[in-house]
Amino acid sequence: MRMFTMQDIPRADVEEFLFAEADLLDEWRLPEWLELFTDDATYSVPATDVPANASPDNSLFYVADDRFRLSERVKRLMKRTAHAEFPHSRTRHVVSNVRIRSRAEAELEVSSAFITFRTKDGVTDTYFGSNRYRLVQVDGNLRIRDKRCLLDSEGLRMQGRVSIIL
Amino acid sequence: MASYPVLNSGIMVDEDRKVFKVSRQAFVDPAILEAERARIFDRSWLYLGHSAELPKPGSFVTRQVGGRNILFARDAKGELRAMLNTCPHRGAQVCRERSGTAKSFQCFYHGWVFGLDGALRSQPGEASYAEDFKERGTSNMQQVPRFESYRDFNFVCFDPNVQSLSDYLGPAREYLDVICDQAESGMTIVGGTQEYSMRANWKLLTENSIDGYHAVTTHATYFDYLKATNGGLAPVPLKGSARDLGNGHAVLEYKAPWGRPVAQWIPAWGEEGKKEIDRLYQNLVERFGEERAERIALYNRNLFIFPNLVVNDIMAVTIRTYYPTAPDFMNISAWALAPKEETEWARKYRLYNFLEFLGPGGFATPDDVEALEQCQRGFRNSAEAQWNDISKGMGKPVPDYDDELQMRAFWSNWNKCVFQERA
Ligand code: FES
Ligand SMILES: [Fe+2]
Question: Quick one: how far is CA B248 from the chain centroid?
Answer without folding.
Answer: 14
